[in-house]
Structure formats: structure tokens, C-alpha cells
């Protein structure tokens, strides 16, 4: 990586490349480090290697990241030789889920860092997946970014209104957009979310049209696409690694491989935000410790009886709360076991509140 030596380092106007998503807070943190190496932003990860951008128009620099908690979108500083990541600067946001591969079920997997908007991609050609969207919204709200629901393949359906309404029912106060990567419908509206050099992350299952939408947003055929199976509308992974992509009019897009399983990680207030309508009803219950079963004066059960709250939504919220509690208990047990064995815990990247 480039070095800034002596007094020249203090005179650098690094914020001039705010196009990367650089901020005053990152500037202050970097200048507080005992280093003469300029920071950069991770654009891709490949088996222990990071590709790092120093400027918008620069070629990525490859360096080792072994032992560091790094995600695409992170701002990092290399060691004095420029060969290995030395520091990961504080994240303003991070989209994190529980690792789904065998042997790491108690580990976190950060999909993208320093993001402003999380686009949750669903296809209009498949039945509405309300329960999946609820899980995605919990993760999105917990990331610190703003969730947006995007319904793709508008060109393949006659009337998307029923699908839009179905998903809006479980996404209160969240924008729901309709788009087609093939025809370009709605794409310009999606680009507006990247205004002021913002970073967008995209999350969706294989076959929902994410790669086609990325190509339309970027303006050329960057990603390979594949047809979905007729039987279950599932597709093959056409994106094999997360990557930070520059958008033509400014801003950034983190394209991620298709995610089939959406597993929660330790939540902050994601469940409360994703189920704001249910929590608002819970506040109106007569008893503070109401279990929403058969207690008198239960506002939640009254709403279900009146048909203003779907009982499946209450059941889904309770299942996610239980899943989160089980995960937290598992983490406490794991940390206790590590303490007993005297195992040094891996250093984690920080994330601002």
C-alpha cells in the first residue's frame, strides 16, 4: 500500500477521495494510528487474501488477511511492508448472520461492512416468502443499515400488486420496490439509494434475478446469469464471492452469493424493528408479563381475534426470539469453555453503535 511519510502524512487530504465512502470519523481514527500507510477499502476476499482499493480509480492491491476479521466493505490499513492487513477500522455497520457451513454453527459470518442500504431481493415469479423476509429484516435492522425490499422479474408477471401487498404486511415502514433487470423497470429508483457515495448490499436466494439486476445497475454484463429450474424456481449460484462494485453515477454495490439459509446472529434491536407492529400491540396489554396466550386484556390476542394481526406473525416472532435466546446461551457456554481452557479468543472488528 502507499506510504505517507513524515509531515506529508499529516497534510494528506484523504477525505478528497470520499467517493470510497470515507468519513471524518474514519479520518480521525486513521490519523490516531501509529502508521505511515494509507488506508484502503476491501473490494473482495479470496481464501486468506484481500483486494484493497486505495482510490476509486486505482487497481486493487492484494494482501494477506489471515487472523483478521475482515469483510468486503471494510476500511483497512496494511503493515509497514504493505503485505498484510494490520488494522481494520471501526465499522459503522455490518450485515452479519450465523455461519451455515458444517463445523462453524456457532460462528458469525459478516456478509458486508460499512453499508448504508440492504436490499432484500425476492422474485415476483415465486410465492411470497413472508417468513424468510422477516428473518432478513431482523438481520438488516441489526446491521445498522436501512432495509429495502426489492421484487424482481416484473417483466414476467401481469400484476405484482398482490405480492407487493403480501410482503408489505410483514415489512412495516420499509420501502418495497418493483424492478426488472431485463427491462430496466425500477432500476433508476434503486440507483437513487446509492446517492452521496452510499454503499448498497444485496441479499437474496439463488435464482431471484440478483445477478441480472446487478448487471442493469452497473450498466454492463458484469455477472453471469443462469436460468432457474421450472419445478421449484431455484437457481444456481452465479456469484461466487462477495465483491464491492462501483456504480456508474457514484456509490457502491456489494454483490453477494445467493444465500439459501438465513440464520440469525446475536440481535440488538432487529427483532423489535422487524416486528414493530407486534411490539406496539404488546405495549398495550394489561399485564407487563403477558404471554399472549389466554391472559385477560391481551391486546395481541384481541388484534388476532379482530383479524388485524395474522397469528402466523406472532408465532414467527416468538420462534425468532427463542432462536436468538438459544444462540446467546450457546455463545455463553462456548465462551465459558474457552475461558476454562485458557484459549485466547480471536480479535473482533469493532462496529460503531
Question: How do you describe this structure in short?
Answer:
By secondary structure, this protein is of the alpha/beta class.
Written overview of the protein:
The structure is a single chain. The longest helix is centred in the last third of the chain and has 31 residues, at 311-341. The strands form three sheets. The protein has a six-stranded mixed β-sheet, sandwiched between helices. A five-stranded antiparallel β-sheet has the order 3-2-1-4-5, with no helix packed on it. By secondary structure, it is of the alpha/beta class. The radius of gyration is 22 Å and the shape is globular. The protein folds into three domains: 7-88, SH3 type barrels, CATH 2.30.30; 94-255, P-loop containing nucleotide triphosphate hydrolases (Rossmann fold, 3-Layer(aba) Sandwich); 275-340, Probable gtpase engc, domain 3 (Ribonucleotide Reductase Protein R1, domain 1). The model is unreliable at 4-16 and 232-239 (pLDDT under 50). It is built from ten helices and 13 strands.
